[in-house]
Amino acid sequence: MSTTDYDTIDFFQPGPLYQNPYPYYEYLREHGPVWREPHHGVLMVTGYAECVEVYRDSVTYSNCALMAGPFAQWPVPLEGDDISEIIEQYRDRLPLSDQLVTFDPPKHTAHRALLARLITPKRLKENEDFLWQLADRQIDTFLDRGECEFLRDYATPFTLLAVADLLGVPQEYHEEFLQKLQSKQTDHSADNRGKVEHKPLEYLYQRFTSFIEDRRRQPRADVLTSLAAATFSDGTLPEVHDVMVLASGLFAAGHETTVRLLGVMFQFLGERPELQQLLRHERDRIPNFIEECLRLGTPIQADFRLARVATTLGGVAVPPGTSVMVIPAAANRDPRQFDNPNELRVDRTNARQHVAFGSGIHGCAGAPLARTEARISAERLLDRMADIRISEKAHGPAGARRYKYPQTYIVRGVERLHLEFSPQQPSRAKAAT
Questions:
Q1: Which distant-in-sequence residues (6+ apart) come within 8 Å of 398 by Cβ?
Q2: 87-101, 117-131, 280-294, 391-405: least confident range
Q3: b vs e for 424-433, b when ≥16 Cβ sit within 10 Å of the residue's Cβ?
Q4: Contacts 24+ apart (CB under 8 A), 187-193
Q5: Residue 81 and residue 321: Cα distance in Å, rounded?
Q6: Whose CA is closest to 386, among 422, 354, 420?
Q7: Taking a C-beta distance cutoff of 8 angstroms, is the pair 162, 374 a contact?
Q8: Which residue ranges form the domains of the chain, and what is each CATH number?
């Protein structure tokens, strides 16, 4: 696709551009770190410093239209020097308005503090002990075949059950969760214009509502009871709906994005035997490898903010009511921040400075879990699968691979990843402590 094509293309109309958006991000960068695209008047932010500035300024920028962006439907014009009152009056009409990621302070502050009471260091440690066993159990289902469709056979069930365990879903419900959620999208599903359905989480809403109501009636010595009994910082007990939405949102977002991350990791490993061997022999490099995969294969490609008041960003005027598209996938390749930004370097000293998990008050609460899932998966899959390679039958030969990506600008990651490998004799998984 030529620069001339980029001059006329509407980024928000699905097309082949979504299969590899990175050249387009570089085209945007040529216009500066902040540029107003001509079709919808959206300010597109590709600069690292500018992205961080937006992420950390929750006074100027509202999260209300996080996913809807330029397609948000407002019943009145967004006019005036300060549109905060309009936002508060009508924000509940926008998609995903009941989700923490679309809240602004002070509501966001209270609900984020509640989430911190649910995801404690103790709970994360207990969850990690479970994950070592889960990884081996899932690998056992396909190891003898010497091949797998990695997302279906490993990444999806592993991440689903990882979050289920973190939130205390009883094991007798694990199979039901897999059946209900493995074959359907639980993230912010977009229609063919990039718009977002209002509530794509109905199953999770129903199930967590029943869990929490049950534990409030009959407390037990389990994680769900702790979830049901968690209070706001002022000691008040939240409505069942508030806790249910927090749990459901964490479940859906944490599962989907980590599946994408695992896909990026094993796509790199399958394409690069030398990288695979390096990580086999130098396991201490795995954490930085994960950070580089997050930087180069950012699962959440972009999200939106809405300017409440007039400001400037990257030298560009931002009137109230402007839709600002923050593109962490582009910011993570900003040469002002990362040397040779398109290269994967496991020894990169500032790899963890990426913004794949956002920044500021809306930084991803599930980041510690995602990193743990990725590390354990890398360890156990490298232990038990030798000579991991991309299936040429499914994806074509090296240099002419065929991968398919979602038709959306919101998330990115291969939809299928067929791997071949030589099974290794199983070694004892890390013992739970």
A1: 271, 390, 392
A2: 117-131
A3: eeeeebbeee
A4: 187/252, 187/253, 187/256, 187/257, 187/411, 188/67, 188/95, 188/96, 188/410, 190/408, 190/410, 192/14, 192/407, 193/12, 193/13, 193/14, 193/71
A5: 9
A6: 422
A7: no
A8: 3-423 (1.10.630.10)
Beta bridge partners, 386, equal 422
pLDDT of 194 reads: 40
| CA–CA distance, 264 with 248 (Å, rounded to integer) | 25
Alpha carbon distance 176, 57 (integer Å): 41
- Asked if 227 and 140 touch (Cβ cutoff 8 Å), the reply is no
Q: How many Cβ atoms from other residues are within 10 Å of residue 184's Cβ?
A: 9
Angle between helices 202-217 and 174-181 (to 10 degrees): 160
Closest to 368 measured CA to CA, from 115, 118, 124: 124
Picking from 221, 226, 255, the residue whose alpha carbon sits closest to that of residue 243 is: 226
User: At 97, is the secondary structure helix, strand, or coil?
Assistant: coil
d(Cα 223, Cα 132) in Å, to the nearest integer?
19
Packing angle of the helix pair 273-281, 240-271 (nearest 10 deg): 110
Q: For residue range 186-238, what is the model confidence (pLDDT) as tens digits? A: 333 444 344 434 344 788 999 999 999 999 999 998 888 988 998 988 899 99
The pair of three-digit structure tokens given for residue 354, joined into one six-digit string: 């990426």
Residues 301-330, mean pLDDT to the nearest whole number: 97
Quote the crossing angle between the two packed helices 367-384 and 273-281, to the nearest 10°: 100
Question: Which pair of tokens denotes residue 199?
Answer: 């509530």
Check whether the bond before 219 is cis (ω within 30° of 0): no
What sign does the CA torsion over 229, 235, 238, 242 have?
A: negative
C-alpha 347 chain-centroid distance = 24
pTM: 0.92
